[in-house]
Request: fold
Amino acid sequence: MPVRVCVELRLSPFKKLAFFPRVIWRKLCYICIMQGNSSIRDNLVWQIEAGVDECIGDAPVDRFAETAARLAERQTKQTPKTSQAPKSSANSGQMSPRSRTPEGADQQPMPAPPASQYSAPERAVQSAVAAAGAANSIDELKTAVENFEDCALKKTAMNTVFADGNPEAKIMFIGEAPGADEDRQGLPFVGVSGQLLDRMLASIGIDRSHYYITNIVFWRPPGNRNPTTGEISACLPFVERHIELVDPEILVFLGGPASKTLLGRQEGITKMRGQWFDYATPKLPRPAQAMPFYHPAYLLRSPTHKREAWHDLLEIKQKISQD
Reply:
């Protein structure tokens, strides 16, 4: 009986599994792995190892095919423009006033280097720098992030998790990456760790109407793994531009990855926490005061460090009152 039920669930529409808790889902998967046929067993083993923990749709979606279709459509739109340029110059038959040679060679732009000259991570960073630099408001930056296709995490995530809170607040928090709850809702720090952070900040009189919060990565890594260096590098230009547009007086970096990335330091979070650093970029009108802080997920795993976190919260509260 368990085998028949599990096979029917595996072949039925995925939405019928939405009401099952994750524990029951994993137990059913285990039954299939132990007693089901080889094809179902192999599929479930692969999904579990890839970090799948719930069903989100009735049918699979090939995100890679969608991206390839968008890129192909974009290239077809750009091709006529490039083909018209040499025709106009060839039909003119006249030398440009600025041209010093009959061909007008020094007037022509330098050819762009071939795309193959750069690796995929380098192209992703270059694309992110261009898109982030063109944004002149937070809404424009959000649109640029949502349209960015050069970070592989976007292909496996449900939603883009941009930011939450008050962008006019003087204090801005930056974490590491969205989790499962954040991925479903499209908002940062709404899961268990986010609820702990809200309670901690409420203890010093701060709620989300008084602070702004985001992450150094805008999409959930599969299985809640740590984001890679390449994934962080692809998102970093957007994060830096995000800070410039918000222009906070105080920055709080939640966890080691955010602190190391934005401060450019190699020390661990236990050595950096509780200290104030200057954070500056060329487009910030003045340096912001930045403090590394324990990530709330770390505090859930290591509650003995809550005493140190409370001390750091009091430091943040004092800094807010001074500014």
User: Anything to note?
Assistant: Residues 2-49 form one domain. The beta strands are 164-165, 171-175, 212-215, 250-254, 277-279, 288-293.
